[in-house]
Design goal:
Two copies of one chain form a homodimer. By secondary structure, chain A is of the alpha/beta class. Chain A folds into two domains: 149 residues, Quinone Oxidoreductase, Chain A, domain 1; 150 residues, Rossmann fold (3-Layer(aba) Sandwich). Chain A has nine helices and 16 strands. In chain A, strands 3, 4, 5, 6, 7, 15 and 16 form a seven-stranded mixed β-sheet that branches. A six-stranded parallel β-sheet of chain A has the order 10-9-8-11-12-14, with helices on both faces. In chain A, helix 2 packs across helix 3 and helix 2 crosses helix 8. The interface between A and B is medium-sized, with 34 and 34 residues. Strand 14 of chain A pairs antiparallel with strand 14 of chain B.
């Protein structure tokens, strides 16, 4: 009999998450039946989306949602042999009995020298979000100028690098000098610390006096109110996240963007990466290719210990991480 | 020597326009030179866009911007014979000497029994805005549900009718019971007076419990904050106008729409009809065709006298008109 540790959402978040929103519970797992496998978590992802999704998709008492890289440790399904690895939407749990329906095997050509943790980052959901946001939502073209905020995060850091691969000028905003230094290492043309620039408007104008063709939006809130008027005519905005608003107890308000959107004919589109599930396999291969060629650099922010999941999650929401925030069991 | 009466913007608008923002001036016109024509205004358009454009595109002391249907009364250009009619962006003036570059001749197959005033309305800029907003921005498909506000106005009333032609369910919001009755005459499936419904949210839910695929936005401001959450997944919003905010002295604010746009993957796009100038001739022909077939009904709100232009403009901004607001010289 295997015991799974799980993290429960005991109470819906009000404002910024607190330790008391979470509870560690131990669960006895049944034996896998025919066709099923028993998984053991190796890496667990903490991502910004979990904050708003908790309210939209979870009940109090549910295991926290989330994705993990797991190892098959017992198998009654020949397609998933013992010792193989998968990406699983198991939530925050150390062990899972799975009917394999939602499992994604790690790509067969995954290189030995590439950490499997990247299946939760640059070669996983965040990387796909960056790539498909750029290609399917923004339609970014060579020679254009792209703005990305939360640029040192799991998605933002990939966005900027892909835009460089595509021959664009890239401007990144991040929340610490260390993050700005990281963005420069990644090849961003311009990067600034939005917390210390004084005027965000001036920083945006200075970084690209001619404005922005594309804006990959991860932050929302007041940043968006300043950034939208800096778009060029026919500018496109991919709305991927709004982390600055996720912990609001009363919604923040800002000026209506309509008139600016009309005069500049701006398009703004919200998206989630699952929309293009059919494109994920080919897109993952391209991401892995760029990684192997050295065109995509990676940084990960590891927290050791399943017990630390809430701390890792809250730290990520506070911007502690540079690159992808991941928990190592 | 011909004298032109003109309406000057003496001082930029602050808040709602006042009589003191305008001044009637008389101007001596030179003789037309070779290639030029002398125009006499017959119908002049007053449109919502003039309010925000005044700040963006005009200096104090300029003649108010605007389009008119004019008659050629003197010609030194064989392509524009005396007695022919044109659409001209002359601004608010009774007479104009034009080098013909920006003139659009009235379509050669314009029917005798159709008022030339419609070249400023259903068969002109507002009609093209409706048609191209629906086709190029919304990509409205048969069977979908469309919401339009300011629905009894020059653009909105055409939007709803085209959506019906395309086999859609149409919901319209307007600001008086007479306007709502007009929308029902036009064949709108649902129409309500937003000033008397009590809860706009409930009115929108009642009119289409399953939500909205497309939203043709003419109003902006708080209406948009209520309407955006009523969109279906993958909903599209064409941002054509924001009349509820044009007279703000300090910008109105509302909740940031980002999270709703992400969860529902909503697209919102500002546009101006000039973007598809290449499509105007063919699109105008289609509008005229629908008019002749009786599929597009028309109502115009005429004000008599060039002297009344400011009053007609201010009345239109207050929603006095049902259908297109036009001044007859």
């Amino acid at each position: 009999m295997v015991q799974a540790k799980t993290w429960i959402l005991t109470k819906h978040f009000e404002g910024f998450p607190k330790d008391s929103n979470f509870e560690l519970k131990v669960e006895e797992l049944p034996e896998p039946k025919d066709g099923e496998v028993l998984l053991e978590a190796v890496f667990l992802s903490v991502d910004p989306y979990m904050r708003p999704f908790s309210r939209a998709r979870m009940q109090e008492g549910d295991v926290m949602i989330g994705t993990q890289v797991a190892k098959v440790i017992q198998s009654k399904n020949p397609a998933f042999p013992v010792g193989s690895h998968v990406v699983s939407r198991s939530g925050w749990r150390t062990h899972t009995v799975s009917d394999v329906k939602e499992l994604i095997p790690i790509m067969s050509d995954w290189p030995q020298d590439v950490s499997l943790s990247l299946a939760l980052g640059t070669i996983g959901m965040p990387g796909l979000t960056a790539l498909l946001g750029i290609e399917e939502v923004l339609g970014l073209q060579k020679g254009e100028t792209l703005l990305v905020n939360a640029a040192a995060g799991a998605v933002g850091s990939v966005v900027g690098q892909i835009a460089k691969i595509k021959g664009c000028k890239v401007v990144g905003s991040a929340g610490s000098d260390a993050k700005v230094a990281f963005l420069k290492e990644l090849g961003f043309d311009e990067a600034f610390n939005y917390k210390t620039v004084g005027s965000l408007e001036e920083a945006l104008k200075k970084a690209s006096p001619e404005g922005y063709d594309c804006f990959f939006e991860n932050v929302g809130g007041p940043f968006s109110s300043v950034a939208i008027p800096q778009m060029k005519n026919l500018g496109r905005i991919a709305v991927c996240g709004a982390i600055s608003t996720y912990n609001d107890t009363t919604p923040q308000t800002g000026p209506y963007p309509h008139l600016t959107m009309i005069f500049k004919q701006i398009k703004m589109e919200g998206f989630m990466v699952g929309r293009w599930a059919d494109k994920h396999p080919e897109s993952s291969k391209r991401l892995l290719g760029w990684l192997k060629e050295g065109k995509l650099k990676v940084r990960e922010h590891f927290t050791k210990g399943f017990e630390k999941m809430p701390a890792a999650f809250m730290g990520m929401l506070q911007g502690e991480n540079i690159g992808k925030a991941t928990v190592v069991v």
